[in-house]
Design brief:
- The chain is of the alpha/beta class.
- It has an eight-stranded mixed β-barrel with strand order 1-2-4-5-6-7-8-9, surrounded by four helices.
- The structure holds ligand C2E and magnesium ion (3 copies).
- Ligand C2E binds next to strand 2, helix 3, strand 4 and strand 6.
Length: 278
């Protein structure tokens, strides 16, 4: 009787472990090794300065080169890193790699500012911004060369702590950008308090801009709002030339998207840049 109940329990338990959660479980364990053994790689996507018509910035976007699964996109493993306390190690790896890349470009005469994405988890850690400031100094990377991209949700959970951390980073000369602007849940009251330099309009408003009048109204109003608040605007998700021109005419500061280039690994990015008209 007893054994039979046990067996039933096992069967119930079994049906709950579907293929996805086994895969997830494996990824959790493997991610630690991946960070330690540098199975991560940064891809770089250019940002075009529209006034200068020159590539002055790039965004660093992490990928996991898994030994058997191939390249895993960040949307698959960043949420796992966030839930399993691995975001600190991951962001530190990304920051250090971006700093090394900064010097590799400098050595080639390429003056490039690099944007790194920061997770909500990083802003919950009081030590994080001190680490960033100290490490930039140690690695001789000017703070003005680094932008941190932060999504609105990073601020919503603990606005007071986030505000403190962001202020410290900005007072020390880093550039701060609100990523995926327009998709989050923060209020304008919260946003106006944030010590940031730029808004990055989410690609969902930009990708089909010229086919969608509502998107045009949203983007136009965001440009006005941002400029009146003294903020710069980056548009992400530009997929055609007409959208690039539309944004240029409306004094958007920077443009990013597949129309210019997809994110590329270092060597391919350098090849792209050397052949670019910008
Ligand atoms: P994000 O920071 O908003 O980055 C933009 C994403 O949109 C990138 O996807 C990029 O490849 C994609 N994208 C850029 N231009 C276009 C376009 O014209 N059309 C379309 N359809 N997509 C475009 P990716 O590289 O897969 O990154 C996804 C997200 O993962 C990022 O969104 C960011 O939130 C997160 N992420 C990436 N790297 C890191 C990292 O090092 N740390 C943290 N915390 N998050 C990261
Ligand atoms: Mg970003
Ligand atoms: Mg974004
Ligand atoms: Mg995004």
């Amino acid at each position: 009787q007893h054994a039979k109940i046990n067996k039933r329990d096992y069967q119930i338990y079994d049906t709950h472990i579907d293929k996805n959660s086994i895969e997830r479980f494996q990824l959790i364990n493997e991610l630690k090794v991946a960070i330690e053994q540098s199975q991560l790689v940064l891809y770089y996507q250019p940002k075009l300065n529209l006034a200068l018509q020159k590539i002055t910035h790039v965004e660093a976007l992490v990928r996991w080169v898994h030994p058997s699964r191939g390249i895993i996109p960040p949307d698959t493993f960043i949420p796992i890193a966030e839930k399993t306390m691995q975001m600190d190690a991951l962001t530190r790896w990304v920051m250090k790699e971006a700093m090394a890349q900064y010097h590799r470009w400098q050595a080639q005469g390429i003056d490039m500012c690099i944007a790194v994405n920061i997770s909500a988890e990083n802003l919950k850690d009081e030590q994080f911004c001190y680490w960033v400031i100290d490490t930039l100094a140690q690695q001789h990377v000017p703070v003005s060369a680094i932008t941190l991209e932060i999504t609105e949700d990073a601020v919503v959970s603990d606005p007071e702590l986030a505000l403190k951390q962001l202020s410290l980073l900005r007072e020390n000369g880093l550039t701060l950008s609100i990523d995926d602007y327009g998709t989050g849940y923060s209020s304008l009251a919260q946003l106006k308090q944030l010590p940031v330099d730029e808004l990055k309009i989410d690609k969902s408003f930009v990708q089909k801009l010229l086919q969608n009048e509502a998107d045009q109204i949203i983007v136009q109003s965001t440009l006005q709002l941002a400029h009146n608040l003294g903020l710069k605007v980056v548009a992400e998700g530009i997929e055609d030339k007409a959208t690039l021109l539309w944004l240029t005419e409306r004094h958007c500061e920077m443009a990013q998207g597949f129309y210019l280039s997809r994110p590329l690994p270092e060597q391919q990015f350098n090849d792209w840049l050397s052949q670019s008209i910008y």
